[in-house]
Batch of 2 targets.
Target 1
Amino acid sequence: MRVLILGGDGYIGWPTAMKLSAAGHEVMAVDNYLRRRLMREIDCGALFEAPNLHERARHWAAKTKKDVAVRIGDLNDWTFISSVFREFAPEAIIHFAEQPSAPYSMLDRATARLTLDNNLGVTFNVIHAIAEFAPEAHLVKLGTMGEYGTPNIDIEEGWIEIEHKGRKGKFLFPRAAGSLYHTTKVLDTDLLWFYVRMWGLRVTDLMQGPVYGLTTEETGDDDALNPFLNYDEVFGTVLNRFMVQAAAGYPLTVYGKGGQTRGYLHLKDALQCLQLAVENPVESGELRVLNQFVETFSVNDLAGHVQRSGERLGLDVRIESLPNPRKEAEEHYYNPVHTGLLDLGLQPNKLTDEVMDEMMRVILRYRDDIVTERIFRGVKWNK
Ligand code: USQ
């Protein structure tokens, strides 16, 4: 299949490009390096410098004899996105091309505005580019489990049937996002659902939980193929952060009571899910929503896992409870359904001791490069 990956330079984007290329798909990766620029602007480096997308693709081709085409440009620009769609004529599009950080979206008015404009603007352009140049193509869109928030009932897989005053109907499961970033994903879902109804698009919206991990089948132990690993408060996800904190001898930053529970998955499983979604397209006029995670953990559970991995590797890992800079429930019910991807064939990789220790060993190779000042800055959710 010809698969167009929008946001192909990102933490999940680049590993997805390699995964689908290895599986025999024809892949084009597009990015405008927004995340790299934002990281520089607010002083958030990743654990190691990643080669640029052209260099990555050359390295991949030299190793595997498989090509990943690369285009650099802003998908908010209609001239650019239409030229990409015309040239590549995609059969599937994976859309990661969004500002992905909740804290970034809560920093100040300018970062909130950028998040809103970029995320909604790109989704809008992607929808219109599909309608104009590739109406049969299947769009696989990266959403987030955070769209649902933490309601006091079981979270269904995208849809809920409601009986009201003796009549029944099927609706999108209620959304209640906890940051502006997460809210842009809710708005994306509404935009997609509107155009699925109006124009009969084919869309899969993946509600993904926080991802952890660094190496995949395709990276092997070649560090030049690794995605960038953020450990800073703004772009790092919690488990990756805790692992780096442990390696640096920095106390693990548990926010508030630490009972915040989310659905987590390894990067390898995120790739499996994306491949499954692409290779099992939906019908025209269907919006399929899949809850994309493997296991639920509280922040305290994760801190405990990291502390024990540290002990096994001779590190002294301390856990610290900080006043929560975010506005979120710190103790809550959490029971989301997640059978859709298992039914499609997902083989989950769980968070085992081996997985933790293997990742910790890679991080320890870079421990001298960790800039501890980047770990905590306390971006506040409150005005
Ligand atoms: N947390 C801590 N200490 C830290 C960092 C985070 O206690 O040092 C807590 C947060 O308060 C939160 C939980 O850990 O309760 C998860 O935080 P996170 O930063 O790993 O995840 P989040 O901001 O929700 O965003 C990440 C990705 C985002 C994706 C989302 C999936 O950056 O792109 O959409 O995970 S989900 O959380 O399911 O919405």
Target 2
Amino acid sequence: MGKAWLNNRLIHKAMANDSFAFSPATVAGGDAVRLQLESDIVNWLKLPLELDPEKATVVLQKQAGKFDSDEAFQLSQKGSQVVITANTTNGLMYGFYELLREKVMGTKLNTDLQSPSQPLRMIDHWDQTDGSIERGYAGASIFFGKPDKLDNPDVGNFDVKHIDGDIFRHDRTRMITYARMLASVGINAVSLNNVNVREQGIELITPKYLDGVDEIATIFRGFGIKTYLAINWAAPKLIGGLDTSDPVDPKVQEFWAKVCKNIYSVIPDFGGFLVKADSEGEPGPYQYGRDHAQGANMLGQAIKPYGGLVIWRAFVYNAHQDWRDRKTDRAKAAYNNFAPLDGHFADNVILQMKFGPIDFQTAEPLQPLFGKLRNTNQMMEFEISAEYLGHQIDVNYAVKQWYKMLNYDTKYDDLKDPHAGAVLKETAVNPAHTGMAAVGNVGMSEHWTNNPLAQANLYGYGRLCWNNQETPEDILHEWVALTFTESDNKTQSTIYKIVDTSNETYRDYCAPLGVGFMVVPHYHYGPSVNGYEYDRWGTYHFADRNGVGVDRTMATGSGFIGMYSDKLSSEYENLDTTPESVVLFLHHVPYDHVFANGKTLIQTIYDLHFQGYANVEQYVKDWATVSGKIDDRVFESVSDCLKQQLADALEWRDQVNTYFYRMSGVPDDQGRLIYE
Ligand code: GCU
């Protein structure tokens, strides 16, 4: 076993493999530049340096101020040489990875200037200091926990020096490989710990743990990635010996100023804080009668001298709903809390909002704050970990969904480009402080993710952050080519076909048409049609004998639809112009309602569920054909996952169809088996 074995389990291994390098390369721009490159890039990429420019095949050319973005790069051909030009080392690194990608794929050199769509491209780990991961499905944390807790003792763990009481895993090999993989797709920010900050997690910001954080930050720094920490809002009380965490109290302000001073004395390029406040029982400024801007700006002030950021989550709700109450609506919570605060947040504060109004469901319309806020830095948040998307058991290429959300038309006529991804920049206080964030999906498991195919989401997320316009299909072509490098075209295209349709497939056999939350409560995997139906958090589908769905219209429902631009509100207010994929999120629809394609709602529910299951049956057959054509362990892991997916898709199909058959009394028009 050993490193090579580890890397073999790494999908998109062409970019993450230690031994892959071009040779020889040279550096233009003088000794100072060369030395920096040597440490920052050449070492990491194992790039043999050639000081004679004539002999080089790749020339790295650093020219400060050449491009608008310090992360941008351009490739050009000069005789037999490829020249990578960038303002900074990080730009050269991104250029180098692009060149690697093109070489492996055998495509023509792309000589366009390449510059990231979003300045902040972040992964949020929900890792906990005991090594577990909230909503983690790929084994233990790669950052925290004792080596003896490894899921698979053969994996990683090569350089561990561990002493009792230490919360860090110190698995440098694993972290370096991870950092390289993230850098190769353009990720430049990582938050290490869970947003629900508990136990020693609260103390990560104190000197006791800063050396451990610094060990990780130092690895990430080499790959152009800044390290962030999630903090507990009540830290002044919990660990600071104060009797309050009120943001206007000078003692609280001093506490945070000191925290920042300590952190930056150890980690001079620390990224900043990620904060979940007043949300799902977490403490926050409301407790002291302060609003979110007061809370966030106080932290912003403390970290400002060091150039740090405060990323403040908008996942704030307190629906306390009763099933008889049709006006209280959790979907309105973020808007109600944050729309009135537009323009109140400091320049170094960013509001991080989940892409939809509720919670990472299989289909949701866009969070209406995008486009509504005009003077606030914003990030859009996704969940790569797949909490509601099959726990990395079911194959589910969520890049499709994220692409849709980023390119969602907010229909504000006064915006230059009303598509959500572009809106982020146009409506920011500081366009450098916008971007995307996603809950990460890796752990200590053999393949980094549980289902090896789930790695396509990590790869795709990074690529999509870098270029919001790159289609999920193009991204998937790249991933398959870079990952299954030794496989023949037919094998690659079989894998492509399975992954390509998997997001729709999963959506189709789960809760129908955007209604969401028919999952097993708390666990969030597998069907439970009424599992959350009488829950006080307002996650209802309101199915009755006549129809299903949540009436969020302005005319008769909760009024949520009125939170969108006038154009979008009037489209969504009308059932006939509402997109079918989210129709039950926005309307209570009778079972006999006929959609534009001539099908009734009830028949659509049946058909989607039968189709979703049939697709998985086909995946199982197709996957069997790649046996012997790819790494055996990867083959077997995916086979095991597909076996479970097939059984679970059947459960979904039958439970959902049976439920709606019983409710509506309408049989399937094709006479397929639906249980009574
Ligand atoms: C979901 C998830 C929680 C998580 C929360 C969040 O509700 O189930 O585990 O803490 O999202 O985004 O903060």
